[in-house]
Design goal:
Layout: E1 6-11, H1 19-29, E2 33-38, H2 48-55, H3 81-84, H4 86-93, E3 96-102, H5 104-112, H6 118-125, E4 129-134, H7 138-142, H8 144-155, E5 159-160, E6 164-167, E7 173-177, H9 181-192, E8 202-207, E9 212-215, E10 218-220, H10 227-238, E11 242-247, E12 259-262, H11 266-277, E13 282-285, E14 292-294, E15 313-315, H12 319-325, E16 331-337, H13 342-352, E17 357-361, E18 374-375, E19 377-381, E20 386-388, E21 392-393, H14 394-416
Helix pairs in contact: 1-2, 1-9, 4-6, 5-8, 10-14
Length: about 425
């Protein structure tokens, strides 16, 4: 399952350090390439040689080659980098960093941005996903500062494997025991392969604009090209989802999906979206639905006249609000186009419409907008976690949005279990 994946396994100074041996075996059995980094305290419980024999890789225990260390630089011999920055090499090499067991000490260091040993430095220097599996005395686990550190790290995107109840080293039976090896491996799998959460899931994607007729040849609309919604549909299918693409007018070739439904007006979009979403797992409202429509469309072409012409308008249906009111177990994703106070207004829409995730973009930002192939957005989830993404293609962005959706699904599953 993990063939080709590179994992840094961090071992810290907990009595549960011995379980790192079993964890290493489980990961390598799945095909992962694992390199171990041990803190100085961890070496008091186990010798680095144990992990070296099982992994076939040198174990890193210090930052610099000049120190007494079982570590080894992975830069070519003879280069300056070989003896100076091996932690950077490990940090960039890893697809994932797993710290198991994770002590209160390492959590406090990372939360505070402290890098004073090999493991904390590798974590802070890496862009890879980091997973912590805490193991400690229940009183330490419940300590206000430890809980605050865990909460802040989770908000920053670090993944946690909840400790279990059981007999602790102090002789008390309570929370704080390292999670089972199977559970930790499952979380690693979910982190490395977020797309697995969408396999077989019914995903509704709405795309494009709507057109509200004024007369047979004129309508109210907007410049939406549908490119973002079509990218989401394409990538959703690639991730194993059963995608239903409901599209307003768009001059695009629709991607291969399970079902393609073409609509024109907001009423038609509402009807098809509500019908298809009844058994959906995910609804992503990427379409730019017109906010207003003529109260009454004229059946004949309106002729030019010398006097002014008054057009009476009314609001269209708020489809996403209606979905939010009856959301159930579905994951609901909305989009917000904002020209000022983007985050504030996006968070307000997220709460008011009971969304799990909102994608906020400002068309005035260079590279963003309706008819271009790139975008610059900010993601906000229901926990108020804000993720600002750089300029990227809409296909790349679709993957980022789907990864966030997968994360929401996993949280919902865990909260229900």
């Amino acid at each position: 399952m993990f063939s080709g994946k590179k994992i840094v396994l961090g071992i810290t100074g907990s009595i549960a350090a011995y379980k790192g041996v079993e964890l290493l075996r489980a990961l390598t059995k799945e095909g992962a390439q694992v390199r171990v980094v041990m803190t100085r305290s961890a070496t008091q419980f186990l010798t680095p040689l144990t992990f070296e024999v099982l992994s076939g890789e040198k174990v890193t225990t210090t930052l610099f080659e000049g120190e007494a260390s079982h570590g080894e630089s992975y830069f070519p011999k003879g280069t300056v980098s070989q003896s100076r920055i091996k932690h950077i090499d490990l940090a960039s090499w890893a697809d994932c960093i797993l710290v198991a067991p994770a002590t209160a000490n390492i959590l406090g260091k990372v939360r505070s941005g402290i890098a004073d040993d090999a493991l904390s430095t590798v974590i802070l220097a890496s862009k890879a996903r980091v997973i912590f599996a805490p193991a400690m005395n229940v009183n330490m686990l419940d300590n206000h500062f430890v809980q605050q550190n865990i909460s802040m790290l989770m908000k920053a995107g670090y993944v946690f494997v909840e400790p279990e109840e059981g007999l602790l080293a102090c002789g008390v039976s309570d929370r704080g025991r390292l999670a089972s090896i199977d559970k930790i491996v499952d979380v690693v799998r979910e982190t490395l392969f977020p797309e697995r959460a969408l396999i077989g899931k019914k995903i509704i994607v709405t795309a494009g604009r709507t057109e509200e007729p004024i007369d047979p040849v004129r309508h109210i609309s907007n410049p939406s090209s549908g490119k973002m919604g079509y990218a989401l549909a394409e990538r959703g299918t690639a991730w194993g989802g059963k995608v239903v693409l409901i599209s307003g007018p768009a001059s695009l070739e629709h991607p291969r999906v399970d079902k393609f439904i073409k609509v024109k007006t907001a009423r038609e979009m509402r009807k098809e979206t509500l019908r298809e979403s009844s058994d959906a797992n995910v609804v992503i409202m990427a379409s730019a639905v017109s906010d207003l429509r003529p109260v009454k469309a004229v059946t004949k072409k309106i002729r030019r006249a010398g006097s002014k012409f008054t057009l009476e308008l009314e609001p269209t249906e708020d489809i996403i609000r209606e979905l939010g009111e009856k959301k159930g177990k579905r994951v609901l994703v909305g989009f917000a186009v904002e020209f000022e106070d983007e985050i504030k207004n996006g968070k307000k829409k997220l709460k008011e419409k009971n969304l799990d995730l909102i994608v906020i973009n400002n068309p005035g930002t260079p590279g963003a907008g309706f008819e271009v192939d790139t975008n610059v957005v900010t993601l906000v989830d229901s926990g108020n976690k804000v993720t600002s993404l750089p300029l990227m293609s809409k296909l790349e962005l679709a993957d980022k949005i789907l990864e966030a959706v997968a994360g929401v699904i996993k949280k919902k599953v865990r909260s229900q279990s």
